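Supplementary Text 2. Reproducibility record for the structural model of the 396-residue chain.

All settings were left at their defaults, and a single model was retained for analysis rather than an ensemble. We include the record here because the model underlies the residue-level annotations in Supplementary Table 4.
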Amino acid sequence: MPIITPNREIWTRPNWVIRKHLLEKLDHGLSKKLTLISAPAGFGKSTLIQQWLTKNKHTAVWLKLSNADNDFFCFIQHIVQEVRNIISTACAITYSLNDVRKLPSNKTIITQLINELAQIEMPYVLIFDDYENIDADSSHDVLRTILDSAAHRVLPIVVLTRNDPPIHLGKLRIQGQVNELRAPDLQFSLQETHVFFTKTLAQMLEPAEINVIYERSEGWVAGLQLCQIELNNTIQREQFLKQFSGNTRVMREYLLEQIWSHRSLEMQALLLVSSLLERFCAAVCDAMLSDETTHYVRSRRVIDRLESTNALIIPLDYDSTWYRHHNLFRDFLRQRIQHQWGANHVKALHHKAGLWFLNAGLADEAIDHFIVAQDFERAAEVIEQHLHLYINSILG
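Retained model, structure tokens:
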């Protein structure tokens, strides 16, 4: 039985993995102004909200945002139209501005919209989906002003996005008015992964095989779904499971379309060189990129941007110094750098990384990179030097 929202039909699907702990967390945020679900593509943001609406029978105004909503008045009228799909008489004055030749100021229009939203007595959830498409400050200001007002009534505003929006999140956190779910919250647990494959595979896997898929996918929902599609469409299951990576055809197409193609050239350059490292920081990326681009890439700034746009990089410490790539994305990037830059170029990058790790006192990582770069003489020197230091430390 579907629940009808103004522009979206929400079906209860038989193969849903019901995420009870996340639904409870969404319920706990009902009294807050904002529920923010921020994660990379393919983490099940929309599906989770569909489950929540189905469970609670909430009335929902669901806006699927596009680049057109960067036009201030288009964004306003998009909100108004979806609200009026629930209550046909709502926001009548703001709606009538469609027929006005000379529009009032943006501030006046927002104030009028907020006043009319506040007059709606029926509780509803206002959902902004694909908010990463919004980059105009005038449109951001609409949401910021609504959040600062009382127009949200009882139920929260829900924002689904791949990027953190500039809507005064720090202020909302201090006020205790934001409920946040991020990639670590949304990734499937091992138990959920077993449930998912039990519901979706025509021929069930052994528990040990599911465990391997889980470790490679790290619970990334899209990765599990693409793996399931491949498994249901192949007769060489054992071979596929041995080769499961970010370079299978459907996985590569998804990563190319949803993650890679949305990045700037300097982001792509940093992603490529950092994929050669088991862990990376801004300083080692600066060293590797020193001669690779026509302009100086400030790796710290680029990494910050990649992190804020949820580009499948994972921080390894609290002060955001060291990072790693998601397993499947790293597979994709390593194949891409080999094809784009060639084996000799990649060896040179490993050599640069080895020198940086050696100067940073990280001998083990330096040795690994010198070996990959086929500078066996340098690797042997480092091994010998640090073996002596190790023996001397034992002998006292």
